[in-house]
Amino acid sequence: MKNLFLNIEAIADKINDDIIVMFSTGKDATVMLDLLMRKFPKDRLHVVYLYFIRGLSFKEKILDYYSNQYGITIDQYPTHELTTILRKRTGKSIYSGNILKQSDMQEVLREKYGTSWIAYGYRTQESIERAQMIKGEAINGIDWRNKKLYPVADWSAANILSWLKKRKLPLTIEYSFGLRDINMPYGAVLEWLKINFPDDYLIALDQFPFLAEDLLKWQMSR
Fold it and tell me: Which residue of 36, 61, 116, 183 is surrounded by the most CB atoms within 10 Å?
């Protein structure tokens, strides 16, 4: 059986710089954050959450929980995907310049925190693309060329769930409704938000009024 902690042990042994930790609040990212917090001094970890809609109550609740649990600050920034969406829908942008891709966002964060290393909660079993990316570039969870870290790359979904249970790590509420990512507001998510968290739905509309039209179009297309 593969040592599930080989990657985190190798990362802790070989990486002496600060690390930017991309915390999406998902299952894999939550386990990754917990492992890094157990292996690194917290002042070397810069935890980042990228949002589409800022201030959703249940997202703020889980971010506050882990901020208090580990005694850290979780910095929040708009996701790079907002640039493309807003330019297309409103002609405006959340960022100046051309922050259109994940790689653009990575460079922004690297400059801000003064470190090259970024950790992601990606797993090889998620998809063929992820497997090819990680196995093609990383050795024991460390991609030296691109300065990326994958602490849970070799974990299965069952391993992730087991660790969440063992460590009693809570997940954001959308998982109990069978939703994986509430952050990207597509039709089903908007409907769920409007029904279950009407105040948060109003927050979403306040930031992006066009979402009401998106929800209506999605409902009519079913």
Answer: 36
How many independent structural domains does the chain possess?
A: 2
Per-residue pLDDT tens digits for 17-40: 999 999 999 999 999 999 999 999
Q: Is there a single domain that holds both residue 120 and residue 202?
A: no
For residue 111, count other CB atoms closer than 10 A to its CB. 9
- The pLDDT tens digits of the residues spanning 206-219 come to 988 888 988 998 88
Alpha carbons 19 and 115: distance in angstroms, whole number:
7
Domain residues for the domain of 45 are: 6-176
Q: How far is C-alpha 84 from the chain's CA centre?
A: 19
Between CA 114 and CA 18 the distance in angstroms is 8
Radius of gyration of the chain, Cα coordinates, nearest whole angstrom: 18
The rounded distance, in Å, linking the Cα atoms of 174 and 48 is 20
